[in-house]
Amino acid sequence: MDETALPPPRFGVEGRIAALENLSPGVTAVRVAVESGPLIFAPGQYVAMSLPEQPPRDYSLTWRSAPDELEFFVRDHGVGGTSTFIAERLRVRDSIRFDGPFGTMPLALGHEGPLLCIAASTGIGPVTAIAKAAGELAPEREVQLYWGAAKAEDLFLVDDIAAALPLDGRLVLSAEDVEPDNGMIRAGNPVDAVSVYHGVLEGWGAVAAGPPVMVEAAAVLIQSLGLAPENFHADAFFTQKDKQPK
Questions:
Q1: CB burial class (10 A; 0-12, 13-18, 19+) of residue 192?
Q2: Predicted local confidence at residue 4, as pLDDT
C-alpha cells in the first residue's frame, strides 16, 4: 500500500452529533452522523472538525466508525479550545462540518509481518482500528497492542478492544497510578511494557498514537530493538496547550 491508495479527502462535509458518551472522567465518545454522503476512510485516519467559534481541530476515527457514522474519542485537558467546547457545550443534534480523511498511518497495513501497536490515552481509537484491520486482512498475523493511561480509570472499553483484536492477539494494559503487583494492569506506561515483553523487533511493523512524548519514546525504543524506520507509522496528538492542530 502507498499513499496513492488512500481515500482522497473531502472538504466541507456536513454532519450532525448523533451521540455523546462519557467513557471516563475526562474522555467523551463523540458520534457524528454524516449527512452529505458516506465518508470513505482507511483505518487510523483522522478528520479536521469545525465547531462554532472554534478553530478546526484534528480528531482520529475509532475502530467503531462506519462511513455513515463516525466516532472520535475526545479528551478535555481543561485548557480551553475545541476539546473543552465538546465536553461542556456540544449537544446531540448539533450541526458540524469537517474535512478529511487525512493521515498515512494506514500504510502500516502494507507490512506483511507481525504488527506492534502502541497507544496512550485516546490514541487507542485509531490504533485499535489498525489492529482490527490487520487481523481482518491476515487472520494468522501476530498483532500485539499495548495501551496505557495516566490513571487506570481512563482505560475504557477494554472488552470491546480485546474483541477487536485477532483471535490470538495480545492486549497489555498499563497505568501510572496502579501498584506494581496489580494482576491485570501493569504499573507504568505502554512503552515500558514493550521493553519488558520484547527483545528484538526485526521483521515487525509498528504503529503508535498518543501524546508526542510517548510517540517519540516509542520510536526510539522500537528502532533500538531492530525495527526498520520505514515500518513505523505514528500519529502524535498535540493538545491545545501545545498550540498545535492536533
A1: middle
A2: 57
Residues ≥6 apart with Cβ < 8 Å to 155: 24, 147, 149, 173, 175, 185
Residue by residue, what is the 3-state secondary structure of 166-209? CCCCEEEEEECCCCCCCCCEEECCHHHHHHHHCCCCCCCEEEEE
- The 10s digit of each residue's pLDDT in 29-59 is 999 999 989 999 999 999 999 998 888 899 9
What is the distance between the alpha carbons of residues 58 and 209, in angstroms, rounded to a whole number? 13
- Among candidates 62, 61, 69, 76, which has minimal Cα distance to 92? 69
**β-pairing, 95-102 with 115-120?**
unpaired
Overall CATH class of domain 105-241: alpha beta
According to CATH, what is the number of the domain 3-102? 2.40.30.10
Minimal CA–CA distance to 227: which of 103, 102, 118, 104? 118
**Domain ranges within the chain, ordered by starting residue:** 3-102, 105-241
The answer to whether the predicted template modeling score (pTM) of the entire model surpasses 0.85 is: yes
Distance CA(30)–CA(71), nearest Å, equals 6
